[in-house]
Amino acid sequence: MRGCFIFAWIVGLTCLLLVLPLLAQPPAPPSAAPSKIASSPLSSGASVDPKLKDMFDAKIRAEWEALKNKDKKTYAELLDDDYQGVEVDGRGERNKIQSVNDLAEQNTFNYTLWGYKLIPLGPDAVLAIYESTLQFPPTAQVRYSRVLISEVWVQRAGQWKELHYQETHVK
Questions:
Q1: Which CATH number is associated with domain 50-170?
Q2: Distance CA 63, CA 89 (A)
Q3: Number of C-alpha atoms within 13 angstroms, CB side, residue 100?
Q4: Which residues contact 53 (CB under 8 A, 6 or more apart)?
Q5: What tens-digit pLDDT sequence spans the chain (171 residues)?
Q6: Full-model pTM
Q7: Which of 31, 42, 33, 49 is nearest to 126 (CA)?
């Protein structure tokens, strides 16, 4: 019985010695929360070159304006020839030609972008993550939809193009 007590005391003391250094460390600062103000420019919590961030901000906004305005030429110029996109409509993966041709069926009346994060994947690749709230025309059955978006952009022949697009519906 006395052996069990000593063993338990040693185990407890060992645990305490392992935990004390962790308790003595100052708490980690909270990570910067992404901006959720719809009217502010897209912002990144990562340390990314401001010029690169501004360029992707402009490219992503141009992409959404092209979708809203059904501008096939502008939209096609933003997509890489190897582009693959998956949207929440359940129709599966689309290539560049299918995505550009699908613009005629788009019914995005307006949109808001926020929660932007830009993650460099190397010198010629970037992952952009953000959320969009889509507004559909007043006559539409569903007026609003929120989607989380991930986009992979690659630099090919000196031009940044969108290689992959993935939407996930948010309830």
A1: 3.10.450.50
A2: 18
A3: 16
A4: 42, 43, 44, 118
A5: 554 444 444 434 333 333 334 334 444 433 333 333 233 344 444 467 889 999 999 999 999 999 999 999 999 999 999 999 999 988 899 999 999 999 998 888 899 999 999 999 999 999 999 999 999 888 888 888 999 999 999 999 999 999 999 999 998
A6: 0.71
A7: 49
